Amino acid sequence: MQILGTILAGLLGLAFGSFLNVCLSRWPEGESVVRPRSHCRACGSELAWWENVPVASWLALRGRCRTCGSWIGARYVLVELAVGVLWAYQAWGVLALATASDVPAISPFLHWNLYNSLARTLAWFLFYWLVIALAFLDAENLWLPDWLTIPGIVIGFASTVIYEAVGISYSDAPLPLQQTAVTVSVQLAISITAAAALILLIRWIYRLVRRQEGLGLGDAKLMAMLAAWLGLPGALLAFFIGVVLGGAVAAGMLVLPKRDSAAWGTRRLPLGTFLCVGGVVSSLWGTAIVDAYLRWAGF
Ligand SMILES: [Zn+2]
Questions:
Q1: CA of 142 relative to ligand 1 center, distance in Å
Q2: Measured in angstroms, how far is the CA atom of residue 10 from the centroid of ligand 1?
């Protein structure tokens, strides 16, 4: 049951990743994601159903259009695999919990916690889809649209508050649901504000020192979104990972032979992409990383 569910979630993830590819190609052009049907971006020939199968079609055609032979890009297969793997991983965790509860109930609250975890898993599916969308939009177009980040903040806030408040209300030392919901909401709102403020502060300092824009407001909204889902420590960890990764890539670009020196020198790094990668790492292993650090630091 656990294995079956995980495979199902993975396949569903591949399908949603495939749809995301259509969005990533069409949103920047302002085109509809529903019509017309899938076609080659180079020659316009419509794709047959068997050319639309996630990952498999890309591999069979070796990433090229069947009609004109132009390179489709590695992004198609990367996006599909990323959504598929993350959804499968998330499903594996919650299904482990669900199958464990087949054993006679340990706590009267186990069922509530199970429903709560299932709801949270569906929310995580959305989070991963959004984060992958933003990562690739920023990498390809230096664009973090408000109509993705702001709903991401709102839904993340609602999902985190519900998950944590219900979790506390149905724990071994329960508190009234309304009271915990208010407390969690206030704490989370402060975390979101602090995360966005951090980016705004760096942006302000950068402008004072360099007299030009370094960070976009989109990055601040993205940080707020990460805080809404991961909490402040998780968002700060994502930021740290993002900055280290971005720095490593920037250093690599300076060292490697330049293909087109003019473009390389002025190319802005998509900080949002690195923040998204940091966000995924933080969501998967955040607690483990923070615990390991605290142990190492001697707390
Ligand atoms: Zn073509």
A1: 26
A2: 29
